[in-house]
């Protein structure tokens, strides 16, 4: 006899058998879909790394104390598709071969001090770099020796440069230990083209220090650059 509400064969064993088949089908489906899911995840990771955000580690002390050796930063690789690098930003760029001590080490990280058309000079009577006639107060980011408390000078060498259009004057925060525009200007006997980098060589903008986590920090443009006027 079939009780009301009971299907033929639904005596417990049949129901368990159906449930086992459904679970097996789900497991089989999962393993079939797993390679597709992994492929999609890898593709998304490649797209993000190539065109959006990339992790960089700091190999040298040229940006101390803002960035220490082996720090990790995130770099926005998309931002300059819609805007130009600004004074005060920390950027990663492909360095000209003449800047490199090792050809394979071609990606540098520096701070933009002046952009195309700017008149950048070192130094005024107080030893400060000026951009378009306005002195920069760089105390917030210039390297300070942790043992002596002595701070780097804005520049060890004088210069007076109008940055060509489409190029950038960049410097490390650890001025006495940075291969940058000032260093190249001295080495090349005042060659402005060789002392600046092309905007097109910029890979992206460093926007956050994320490791070590205890030193986590969002990067912003120092206030001193707010007062710099556009070139006349």
Shape: globular
Q: Give the structural class.
A: alpha+beta
Low-confidence stretches: 1-13
Q: Which band does the percent of strand residues land in?
A: 15-25%
Major beta-sheet overview = 8 strands, antiparallel
Q: Kindly report the average pLDDT value.
A: 86
Cα(first) to Cα(last) distance is: 100 Å
| Tally of helical segments | 3
Provide the helix percentage: 10-25%
Order of helices and strands: HEEEEEEEEEHHEEE
Keywords for this entry:
alpha+beta; eight-stranded antiparallel sheet; four-stranded antiparallel sheet; 3 helices; disordered N terminus
Describe the overall structure.
The structure is a single chain. This protein is α+β, with helices and mostly antiparallel strands. It contains 3 helices and 12 strands. The strands form 2 sheets. Strands 1, 2, 3, 4, 9, 10, 11 and 12 form an 8-stranded antiparallel sheet that branches. A 4-stranded antiparallel sheet has the order 7-6-5-8, covered by helices on one side. Strand 11 and strand 12 form a beta hairpin. The N terminus is likely disordered.
């Amino acid at each position: 006899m079939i009780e009301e509400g009971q299907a033929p064969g639904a005596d417990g064993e049949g129901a368990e058998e159906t449930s086992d088949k459904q679970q097996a089908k789900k497991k089989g489906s999962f393993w079939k879909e797993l390679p597709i899911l992994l492929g999609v995840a890898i593709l998304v990771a490649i797209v993000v790394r190539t065109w959006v955000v990339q992790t960089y580690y700091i190999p040298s002390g040229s940006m101390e104390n803002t960035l220490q050796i082996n720090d990790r930063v995130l770099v926005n690789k998309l931002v300059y598709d819609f805007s130009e690098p600004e004074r005060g930003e920390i950027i990663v760029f492909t360095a000209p071969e003449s800047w490199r001590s090792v050809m394979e080490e071609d990606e540098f990280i520096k701070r933009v001090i002046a952009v195309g058309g700017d008149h950048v000079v070192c130094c005024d009577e107080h030893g400060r770099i000026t951009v378009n006639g306005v002195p920069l107060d760089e105390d917030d980011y210039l390297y300070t020796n942790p043992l002596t408390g002595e701070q780097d000078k804005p520049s060890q060498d004088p210069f007076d440069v109008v940055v060509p259009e489409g190029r950038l004057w960049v410097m490390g925060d650890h001025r006495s230990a940075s291969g940058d525009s000032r260093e190249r200007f001295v080495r090349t006997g005042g060659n402005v083209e060789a002392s600046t980098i092309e905007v097109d060589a910029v890979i992206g903008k460093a926007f956050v220090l994320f490791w070590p986590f205890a030193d986590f920090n969002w990067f912003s443009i120092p206030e001193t650059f707010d007062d710099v006027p556009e070139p006349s």
